[in-house]
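Input record (Table S2, row 378):
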Amino acid sequence: MKRRELVKALGIGAVAVGGLAACTEDKAPKTADCPKPDATPAPAAPEKPIEWRMVTTWPKNFPGLGTGANNLAKLIGEMTGGRIQVKVYGAKELVGALEIFDAVSRGTAEMGHGAAYYWKGKSVAAQFFAAVPFGLSAQEMNSWLYHGGGMELWEEVYAPFGLVPGAAGSTGVQMGGWFNKEINTIGDLEGLKMRIPGLGGEVLKRAGGTPVLLPGGEIFPSLQSGAIDATEWVGPYNDLAFGLHKAAKYYYYPGWHEPGTTLECFVNKKALEALPKDLQVLVRNAIRIANQDMLADFTAKNNRALEDLVNNHGVELRKFPDEVLQKLKALSDDVVAEEAKKDPMAQKVYDSFVQFRDQAMKWHAVSEQAYLNARSLS
Ligand code: CA
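Output record (calcium ion complex):
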């Protein structure tokens, strides 16, 4: 240790240094300035906290997603004993919702909280880390990411942008959406104007419908005025908060198009690697804890909200008929396979994803699925 660092570490002044240096020399005279061997060094001056910014695609404090980002920031502060303090910015506070990827990439902020399907314009492969129609459930997604090679692929996809990705939550299986007419055959989707983004929207288009892109705030008025015929959003917790039950009669399930939407927290690679090793580990693990916690939060709140919608708001729950789901699955398989062909990285991710899904389907047929079916027998 250099003398200057030692001085700083011990929090002692220049006068003492002379004495200390003298004490370390073999021929140094024994003077009263020499500390006794068991002397306790003065405590180091407190570290200045590292201040990070987290930009998000969510309106500030948005239930489940925005609050999930807040919880992660708080957790990082607590786990690091205040050595890292993260300030969360809602969409448009520092940069626009869809600008967060570039903002963190260039270092305007150190962290970003969003969903990977927003970045398909940057990399087609990104969509596989958020939601794929008839893809992986939340549990399967975590298995693929942490123990099935998914995380390494995600890191490869984000590396050219100087970003380190992490799964930071999941909504679980979403709902199929709100409709004002019954869906009995695939033909009932023809001509239907529905708010449904991403790959799910492309599937609807192939079924003869018209997918419409609308931000959250415009969904309710559009459904109420008849500008759209149907909409999907998230699940009972968020849908109830938007009042969607006041504008549509039937609430269809399951959300085949978003079977376990994963949220993300990406970190600027240089900022992460500039941290001491222990803080890097803490940040990575805080994200991992937040990932688990958001799914638990959504599950608990969806349970209660569904009960409220059915018991207190007269919502009619409907399951998509099997025949409709079979056709939507066939269309989805085509759409997703075609998407993967758009670039070699997307194909590489697709191959891993589909292989994992097929394995998971076999295992879950005799475990989760078999159990949930057994439990619901009356
Ligand atoms: Ca959705």
